[in-house]
Amino acid sequence: SLPGFTAVIGPPCSNDVADVAHRTWRDSTGNRAVVVSPLSMATNLADNASYPNLARTVSNDEHAAHGVVEVCVELTWDRVAILHDDSTWSVSCSAAFQASFAAHGQVLDGGLVSFSLAEFDAGTVHARDLLGRLKAASPHVIVVATQPHVQRAIYAWAYDHEILHGPGYGWCSNCPARPLSLPSLPISNRCAPPSAARISFWP
């Protein structure tokens, strides 16, 4: 590490924040610098004992989870699924949603689908597979807590193949800060599936 520095701005990713702010790493290096993260939202990083001298400029996923659950309860959406990968942020986000649903006495009848981000990036897990697992649980609303490039692939496949798409289905994204569209995608599916409700939450 650089000698004498007292603070560092970044990184935005919760996985990286956990690596550079965890007490174990600090104890091994003697580093006590303040870490300021502009986008990290994982709820477990709020543990000041495990992650000392960590400051974040956004609130954690508990607030977004409460917002989504309140909407589901208010609109009586009773078949909700959660899709998440195995990154620090996604696992934490999914746990926050599950806890909030449980606090409201809600059961996730739509299912819980998790996957390995490394396997998705390697091509051994495809958007087709994830949508198939979701469809098997017959959800009406899908809460998506995964990386933007995965969301783009899922929305495009859902639209092109009319899976969990159209009236009666809703998609709630918890990652709206980064654009989900790509110029390389056909204009028809450059965003979330048309005719399906898409709600983005950013606390």
Plain-language structure description:
By secondary structure, the protein is an alpha/beta fold. It is built from 7 helices and 8 strands. The longest helix is centred in the middle third of the chain and has 16 residues, at 88-103.
Strand percent estimate: 15-25%
Residue stretches low in confidence (pLDDT < 50, at least 5 long) are: 176-203
| Integer average pLDDT | 79
Computed over alpha carbons, the radius of gyration is: 18 Å
Structural class: alpha/beta
Helix content: 25-40%
How would you write the strand order of the largest sheet?
5-4-6-7-8
The gross shape turns out to be: globular
- Major sheet attributes: 5 strands, parallel
Number of DSSP strand runs: 8
End-to-end Cα distance: 33 Å
Give me the number of helical elements: 7
Strand and helix order: EHHEEHEHEHHEHEE
Task: Please tag this protein with its features.
single chain, 203 residues, alpha/beta, five-stranded parallel sheet, three-stranded parallel sheet, 7 helices, 8 strands, 37% helix, 17% strand, globular, disordered C terminus
